[in-house]
Automatic annotation (TrEMBL):
This is Phosphoglycerate kinase. It comes from Erythroxylum novogranatense. It catalyses: (2R)-3-phosphoglycerate + ATP = (2R)-3-phospho-glyceroyl phosphate + ADP. It comes from the Eukaryota. Belongs to the phosphoglycerate kinase family. It is an enzyme of class 2 (transferase). GO terms for molecular function: ADP binding; ATP binding; phosphoglycerate kinase activity. The keyword Transferase applies. Substrate binds at D19, L20, N21, H58, L59, G60, R61. Keywords: ATP-binding, Kinase, Magnesium, Nucleotide-binding, Transferase. Its EC number is 2.7.2.3. Pathway: Carbohydrate biosynthesis; Calvin cycle.
Length: 400
């Protein structure tokens, strides 16, 4: 992928696609600005080099023009972080936008309105992509979180606007989620959690090809237990995935991967934050009880296994960490990874719920890399090509 470095940026109109799809509350306040902060280095680099930045993103999944999905609430935070007043356009294409672009000074930033206000965006309509492209001289894709979508502003636009290059965030995500995972410093451990095996099959299969140690946690473990003939009480089980669980265990064995399942679990008498709970061996879950977290022995075993590693990737919580009582396993892993990071181990948090867990524990800053993608990081970890990245590879790379 062409990188954004020594290009001559001065005076150039640069179309930057970022993923500023941040959560807003009912009063339109940003409740998590991580994605805005993550987009700043590329935009700063551009403005410091005298470019005119045309900034574009989607927000939510609007059906047509919907005021509550406007990007307007992002302007104050963006302006604050960039140290300049960001100008907001009311549209993302058309004569008014063209006028605003024409009056943009060097080092200025124009934030376009939500690209998904046009259905042509998600349809990857060539005419719409061409209209977006016509605004600028150069395309920078920094929207890692949306790189798994072949949309007009992430994919189609590269056909009409060259050079098309990756921004710093997109590049960093690829360096860690592809680079560090494909050629890891070994031993390399993968920790995979989450409630369903079905949503993690691809990730587990792909990581089994690369890792030395695989630690499994979260609701999915009960499908593995049941596949091994254990009783799981009323724990979550995907009955149609029992054979798959068995074959994943066999595959790990055949590949020489040390696959560890929790040896004890925290069980509850109902799915609620105030449920009665106790710790039992994984082989002794009584009828009517459900497993909601990994137990203390498992935490100890997992920690010991992690001690030996040089690279760790984590995707998916160990238990129902939204309930404090069942957050202990997930929080212990987050703390362990923070310690390992401090000792020079490469620690990668692969998107979604595990990011929320690491943030809850307050150790986000300690990790080598925290992905800003949900679906995008999952697809990348499954070994899939992301259309937004592929489009850049096919576009003319910029000399560095
Ligand atoms: C995300 O939040 O995962 C990205 O912004 C992509 O959003 P989407 O799933 O609506 O395409």
């Amino acid at each position: 992928v062409g990188e954004l470095t020594a290009t001559d940026l001065k005076g150039k109109k640069v179309f930057v696609r970022a993923d500023l799809n941040v959560p807003l509350d009912d009063s339109q306040n940003i409740t998590d600005d991580t994605r805005i902060r993550a987009a700043i280095p590329t935009i700063k680099h551009l403005i410091q080099n005298g470019a005119k930045v045309i900034l574009s993103s989607h927000l939510g999944r609007p059906k047509g023009v919907t005021p509550k999905f406007s990007l307007a609430p992002l302007v104050p935070r963006l302006s604050e972080l960039l140290g300049i007043q960001v100008v907001k356009a009311d549209d993302c294409i058309g004569p008014e936008v063209e006028k605003s672009v024409a009056s943009l000074p060097e080092g200025g930033v124009l934030l376009l309105e939500n690209v998904r206000f046009y259905k042509e965006e998600e349809k990857n309509d060539p005419e719409f992509a061409k209209n977006l492209a016509s605004l600028a001289d150069l395309y920078v894709n920094d929207a890692f979180g949306t790189a798994h979508r072949a949309h007009a502003s992430t994919e189609g636009v590269t056909k009409f606007l060259k050079p098309s290059v990756a921004g710093f965030l997109l590049q960093k995500e690829l360096d860690y989620l592809v680079g560090a995972v494909s050629s890891p410093k070994r031993p390399f451990a993968a920790i995979v959690g989450g409630s369903k095996v079905s949503s993690k099959i691809g990730v587990i299969e792909s990581l089994l090809e690369k890792c030395d140690i695989l630690l499994l946690g979260g609701g999915m473990i009960f499908t593995f237990y049941k596949a091994q003939g254990l009783s799981v009480g009323s724990s979550l089980v995907e009955e149609d995935k029992l054979n798959l669980a068995t074959s994943l265990l066999e595959k790990a064995k055949a590949k020489g991967v040390s696959l560890l399942l929790p040896t004890d679990v925290v069980i509850a008498d109902k799915f609620a934050p105030d449920a009665n709970s106790k710790v039992v061996p994984s082989s002794a879950i009584p009828e009517g009880w459900m497993g909601l977290d990994i137990g203390p022995d498992s935490i100890k075993t997992f920690n010991e296994a992690l001690e030996t590693t040089q690279t760790v990737i984590w995707n998916g919580p160990m238990g129902v960490f939204e309930f404090d009582k069942f957050a202990v396993g997930t929080e212990a892993i987050a703390k362990k990874l923070a310690d390992l990071s401090a000792n020079g181990v490469t620690t990668i948090i692969g998107g979604g719920d595990s990011v929320a867990a690491v943030e809850k524990v307050g150790v986000a800053e300690k990790m080598s890399h925290i992905s800003t993608g949900g679906g995008a990081s999952l697809e990348l970890l499954e070994g899939k090509e992301l259309p937004g990245v592929l489009a850049l590879e096919e576009a003319t790379p910029v000399a560095v």
